[in-house]
């Protein structure tokens, strides 16, 4: 089987899972967007995805993301590039030059750095507030995502940046907890945000292992890597 055939079959399987999950949740399959997460896979895979009609890809690290986008051509292969990983403030400027959507905005300093970078690059970037879904009793060291209580403050700061457009929320299900329960907390958080900011309609949740639970809880964007592209080598 060629790499194109492998990826096509992965895509078909994932699209079927999305359709089944939408049917089970009484939702339209067109309401859920697929972002294929291409981290660690070569840019030749990204080119194949584009050929197969994928419109959105996600990366989690700078400079890997920048390099691969450039390898697809000056226009990034015509794809929408999502930055889904933890983002250091000192890399925000660089990421603002090429990312179309940043899913991992989780603190005020990052809002300001991204906003500044976008303005400097004369771009407008879609921003999602990443929400931490771990219980309050979890150790807080190094965890990604804003506490649900901080989401509104971060959202308001995003709205104050001309280079950023507030579009919604994002979360990763905590390890070792029932994803369905965690995603229900995201649903509440997203609903509260959308009441204040009606344009914040994106709910980015669901990966290869838990896309069904995410769709049941209202995800509008699922971020899928392995189920489309195959197992990746372990991350360093
Ligand atoms: C890697 C990654 C994904 C995709 O994970 P898979 O298990 O490969 O589907 C989704 N979201 C984020 C933030 C990631 O880092």
Automatic annotation (TrEMBL):
InterPro entries: Ala_racemase_N, PLP-binding_barrel, PyrdxlP_homeostasis. Its cofactor is pyridoxal 5'-phosphate. Keywords: Pyridoxal phosphate. It comes from the Bacteria. CDD domains: PLPDE_III_YBL036c_like (cd00635). The keyword Thylakoid does not apply. The modification N6-(pyridoxal phosphate)lysine is found at residue 39. One of its GO terms (molecular function) is pyridoxal phosphate binding. Residues 11-233 form the Alanine racemase N-terminal domain. NCBIfam families: YggS family pyridoxal phosphate-dependent enzyme (TIGR00044). Pyridoxal 5'-phosphate (PLP)-binding protein, which is involved in PLP homeostasis. Belongs to the pyridoxal phosphate-binding protein YggS/PROSC family. This is Pyridoxal phosphate homeostasis protein. It comes from Solicola gregarius. The lineage of its organism: Bacteria, Bacillati, Actinomycetota, Actinomycetes, Propionibacteriales.
């Amino acid at each position: 089987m060629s790499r194109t055939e492998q990826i096509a079959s992965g895509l078909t399987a994932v699209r079927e899972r999305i359709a089944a999950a939408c049917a089970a949740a009484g939702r339209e399959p067109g309401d859920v967007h697929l972002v294929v997460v291409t981290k660690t896979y070569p840019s030749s895979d990204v080119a194949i995805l584009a050929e197969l009609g994928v419109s959105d890809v996600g990366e989690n690290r700078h400079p890997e993301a920048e390099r691969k986008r450039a390898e697809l051509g000056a226009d990034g292969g015509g794809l929408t590039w999502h930055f889904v990983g933890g983002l250091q403030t000192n890399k925000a400027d660089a990421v603002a030059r090429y990312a179309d959507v940043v899913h991992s905005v989780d603190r005020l300093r990052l809002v300001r750095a991204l906003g500044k970078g976008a303005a400097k690059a004369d771009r407008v970037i879609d921003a999602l507030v990443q929400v931490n879904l771990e219980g309050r009793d979890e150790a807080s060291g190094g965890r990604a995502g804003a506490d649900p209580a901080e989401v509104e403050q971060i959202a308001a700061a995003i709205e104050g940046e001309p280079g950023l457009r507030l579009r919604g929320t994002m979360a990763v299900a905590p390890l070792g907890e029932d994803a369905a329960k965690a995603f229900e907390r995201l649903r509440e958080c997203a609903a509260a945000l959308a009441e204040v900011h009606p344009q914040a309609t994106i709910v980015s949740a669901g990966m290869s292992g838990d896309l069904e639970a995410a769709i049941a809880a209202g995800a509008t964007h699922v971020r899928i890597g392995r189920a489309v592209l195959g197992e990746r080598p372990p991350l360093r």
